[in-house]
Design a protein that fits this description.
Helix content is 52%, strand content 13%. With 277 residues, the chain is α/β, with parallel strands linked by helices. Strands 1-7-6-5-2-3-4 form a seven-stranded mixed sheet.
């Protein structure tokens, strides 16, 4: 979680504590039918409240008029940190459709990925394997085929003039066996084929290359207005100037050690050859 998110959650907790007033935590928990530990965690910012939680809290505190204010605070948290549990309630397809809107609104898109092939360059079979793994992890609705089709439709943006995709990947991502070898081989062929597209600048950071920052979690930057960072529990949507500037510096430092063109092609070819050795 970001420091901003933690601070916002702590601020919400302080407001909840203020509304509880002189009533003891034990008594307040009994009013709500909750454990005392839940009350404590919400007040100290160690647990994220839901909209239902804060409505119940306002009612239990005898101040139902505060529910609107509290729900707005919760929505502010969710706009920055979007849990996979909530996002995947209806499957992966709605998530893909939401992302497509952000891609369509953007002219300059920058990405860093150190763990797997970025979605915009995935083949159908590779994407299917990735969606399957994540559906199993999050125990979410299985709409894999719909999600794959949505992701592939978005890739049409790669061929639209006026848009630039600056994608930087760590070489390790080329070896991640998230799918059968034959599928990975096809994926690497696809990756090599985008080198030279007018709208795509694909850079590979070689294994062993000196880097100013350790390769960490993947993220996308949409112009200079939005950064989406993916973690195991959630996506973080960051649109404040400080965060977008920070991730811009992160991307620039990682990009400095990337190789392009023929050099990137050779790295991909080496990974491809390793699958048939």
């Amino acid at each position: 979680m970001t420091t901003d998110f933690q601070q916002s959650r702590a601020g919400l907790g302080a407001r909840l504590r203020e509304l509880r007033g002189p009533v003891s935590g034990r008594e307040f928990a009994a009013r709500l039918g909750w454990t005392q530990s839940k009350v404590s965690k919400l007040e100290t910012g160690r647990q994220t409240a839901t909209a239902a939680d804060v409505r119940a809290w306002a009612a239990a505190a005898g101040q139902p008029e505060a529910a609107g204010e509290l729900e707005a605070r919760v929505q502010g948290l969710e706009s920055r940190t979007r849990s996979w549990r909530r996002q995947l309630a209806a499957g992966h397809r709605p998530v893909q459709d939401t992302l497509t809107v952000e891609y369509e609104r953007s002219a300059h898109l920058r990405a860093w990925e150190g763990a797997l092939i970025v979605g915009m360059l995935q083949t159908a079979d590779y994407a299917r394997a990735v969606f399957t793994h994540y559906s199993e992890l999050h125990q979410s609705v299985r709409d894999t085929d719909d999600a794959v089709r949505a992701r592939l439709r978005r890739q049409a943006l790669l061929y639209e003039p006026g848009r630039v995709f600056d994608i930087v990947m760590w070489e390790a991502a080329l070896y991640a066996a998230v799918c059968p070898p034959a599928v990975l081989a096809g994926q690497l062929d696809r990756l090599a084929s985008v080198i030279g597209l007018d709208t795509v600048r694909l850079g590979i950071v070689p294994l062993g290359a000196p880097v100013a920052l350790p390769p960490a979690g993947g993220f996308w930057m949409y112009d200079d207005r939005l950064v989406i960072v993916e973690d195991w529990h959630a996506e973080m949507w960051l649109d404040d100037a400080d965060s977008t500037a920070l991730y811009g510096r992160v991307w620039a430092r990682l990009q400095k050690t990337a190789v392009y063109g023929a050099s990137a092609h050779r790295i991909i070819a080496r990974a491809r050859a390793g699958l048939t050795a």
